[in-house]
Amino acid sequence: MTRHERIAKRTALAAALAVLACAPRPAFAASARELTLDGKAALQSLYATQPTAKILGSKAKAILVFPSILKAGFMFGGQIGEGVRFQGGKVTGYYSSVAASYGFQAGIQEFGYALFFMNRSAINQLDATRGFELGVGPSIVIVDEGVGKSLTTNTLTSDVYAFIFDQRGLMAGIGIQGSKITRIDK
What we know:
Order of helices and strands: HHHEEHEEHEE
Low-confidence stretches: 13-27, 145-156
Number of strands: 6
Number of helices: 5
Largest sheet: 6 strands, mixed
Strand content: 35-45%
Distance between the termini: 34 Å
Helix content: 25-40%
Structural class: alpha+beta
């Protein structure tokens, strides 16, 4: 990455954080208990509306659920939220998700997403990094309606599958590539 690109990325992140500081905030979980309950509820809702997610959930080695991500921007933007990791039905950690962007964009949007870690090596990479960046490392498939129809227990070949859900608000485009996920204490 060139010096100019690093400066542009830092500027975008600073602007995104300024926008997020001024934006109305969703009710982020104030405690580990609330975040766990929100994560379980979001996962159950996803299973009820996306049968493919339920299939993946039964095969996944771990599931990382971010029930509420806030994305805001005007030219420079950012997104932020907190999530909970489940393994074998038990909570194994809490995480933050942060991303910055720049380009033509305007608006505020709230959404959730879930990452289904399908093998131990993908989980090891999440555990080994001080900031797991989506789009770098294990192969990630963002599951939409088209992909979801073709997935079966025999065609699961990627390391991580991602579902974006509960989109609310007005903002063109939504994505999780480039999001940095970091373990946090709760």
